[in-house]
């Protein structure tokens, strides 16, 4: 069993280490002769060009990967994108027709709510594109187009490598749509793809420096709660960081959009409360960066213990970071492929420090096939 876990105590820890390969394998073969290609494609070029709205539906971590995708798809394609929990979408009357694309994201491809959301969409003639980790699962079988994440089986109940691979696949979906619609020139698609292709190496580099994050997790493992703040693509990362901590460490954890701080969350700040802040790129997102910097100041002044995830070389955050976690710099839309990693490591280590089995968190199932 130890060998199966690659020398780790838990599958999840091995799966965290497998993330550079999970992203590389998911990208492989999808950029051919200057074009983004999906795995299965039963929609014509014309049908793809006619798409005028996108809904992303998913549950759990897959939903968070969809929230990240919205920023990229809207930016690259100029299509309106809504991201919705499958369990909400399927019981609403969403306005859909044959020019709506529903992107269903599911590691297992069998989640009941996501499957029913797909059927609900198809009843209204919407086109469905599945992002899935399981060949031939029900959701990809019912979809018009499929992009598989290629992580191999994920054993840990809390998603890690599948989540990173989903984000990579979603970026490919965004580029495929931009290409079909002509909102990006071929050389621009190629450039974005090159940025994406550079990510596995950066994730690998980041993973070599996680010991301080583990030490910090042990230090903070008795905290009653942890807050997570982010903006733009860092906001869904904050939500995912909080979800991981709830799932694995059974700790009260909440992610907030940093711009909402003054609308409530700041009332929660008290002496010694750890707050993990995901900083945007100082160059790529200078305005948001300066806004987050003042948010950190405000919470630090009220006694929060600030843990700041920031790009290497971002000197401006140092004075306000009680703990600094550096990540390699990257294209700003792609940063979640990096900023998520220390949050996974943090949650896993807090859980272990508290004596929990990180592969099998209490009350949770790997795949929720009944409502
Ligand atoms: C469960 C798992 C999560 C996963 C979610 C959605 O809650 O514990 O890790 O994100 O289901 O699963 P899916 O297979 O549809 O991605």
UniProtKB/TrEMBL annotation:
Quaternary structure annotation from Swiss-Prot or TrEMBL: Homodimer.
Function, as annotated: Catalyzes the first step in hexosamine metabolism, converting fructose-6P into glucosamine-6P using glutamine as a nitrogen source.
Gene Ontology annotations of biological process type: carbohydrate metabolic process; fructose 6-phosphate metabolic process; protein N-linked glycosylation; UDP-N-acetylglucosamine metabolic process
Lineage: Bacteria, Bacillati, Actinomycetota, Actinomycetes, Mycobacteriales
Entry's localization field: Cytoplasm
EC class (word): transferase
Active site residues of this protein: 366
Part of the whole protein covered: 251 to 621 of 621
GO molecular function, one term: glutamine-fructose-6-phosphate transaminase (isomerizing) activity
Catalysed reactions, semicolon-separated: D-fructose 6-phosphate + L-glutamine = D-glucosamine 6-phosphate + L-glutamate
Main location: cytoplasm
Keyword Zinc applies: no
Protein name: Glutamine--fructose-6-phosphate aminotransferase [isomerizing]
Species whose genome carries this gene: Rhodococcus pyridinivorans
Superkingdom: Bacteria
Keywords of the record: Aminotransferase, Cytoplasm, Glutamine amidotransferase, Repeat, Transferase
EC annotation from Swiss-Prot or TrEMBL: 2.6.1.16
Annotated Gene Ontology cellular component terms: cytosol
């Amino acid at each position: 069993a130890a060998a199966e876990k690659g020398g780790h105590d838990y599958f999840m820890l091995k799966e965290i280490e497998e993330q550079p390969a999970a992203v590389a394998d998911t990208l492989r073969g999808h950029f051919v002769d200057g074009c983004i290609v999906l795995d299965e494609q039963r929609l014509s070029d014309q049908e793809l060009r006619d798409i005028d709205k996108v809904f992303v539906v998913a549950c759990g971590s897959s939903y968070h990967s969809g929230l990240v995708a919205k920023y990229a798809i809207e930016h690259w394609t100029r299509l309106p994108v809504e991201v919705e929990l499958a369990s909400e979408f399927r019981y609403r009357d969403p306005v859909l027709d044959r020019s709506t694309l529903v992107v269903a994201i599911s590691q297992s491809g069998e989640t009941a709510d996501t499957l029913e959301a797909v059927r609900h969409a198809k009843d209204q003639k919407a086109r469905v594109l599945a992002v899935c980790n399981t060949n031939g699962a029900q959701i990809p079988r019912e979809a018009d187009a499929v992009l598989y994440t290629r992580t191999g089986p994920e054993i840990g109940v809390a998603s890690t490598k599948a989540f990173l691979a989903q984000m990579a696949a979603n970026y490919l979906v965004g580029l495929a749509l931009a290409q079909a619609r002509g909102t990006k020139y071929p050389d621009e698609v190629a450039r974005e793809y090159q940025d994406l292709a550079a990510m596995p190496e950066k994730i690998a580099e980041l993973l070599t420096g996680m010991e301080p994050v583990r030490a910090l997790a042990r230090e903070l493992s008795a905290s009653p709660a942890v807050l997570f703040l982010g903006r733009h693509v860092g906001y869904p990362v904050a939500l995912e960081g909080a979800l991981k901590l709830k799932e694995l460490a059974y700790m009260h954890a909440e992610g907030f959009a940093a711009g909402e701080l003054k609308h409530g969350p700041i009332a929660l700040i008290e002496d010694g409360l750890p707050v993990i802040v995901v900083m945007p790129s100082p160059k790529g997102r200078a305005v948001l960066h300066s806004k987050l910097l003042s948010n950190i100041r405000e919470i630090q002044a009220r006694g929060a213990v600030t843990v700041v995830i920031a790009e290497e070389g971002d000197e401006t955050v140092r004075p306000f970071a009680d703990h600094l976690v550096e990540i390699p710099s990257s294209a700003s839309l792609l940063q979640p492929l990096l900023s998520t990693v220390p949050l996974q490591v943090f949650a896993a280590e807090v859980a272990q420090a508290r004596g929990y089995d990180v592969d099998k968190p209490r009350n949770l199932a790997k795949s929720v096939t009944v409502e």
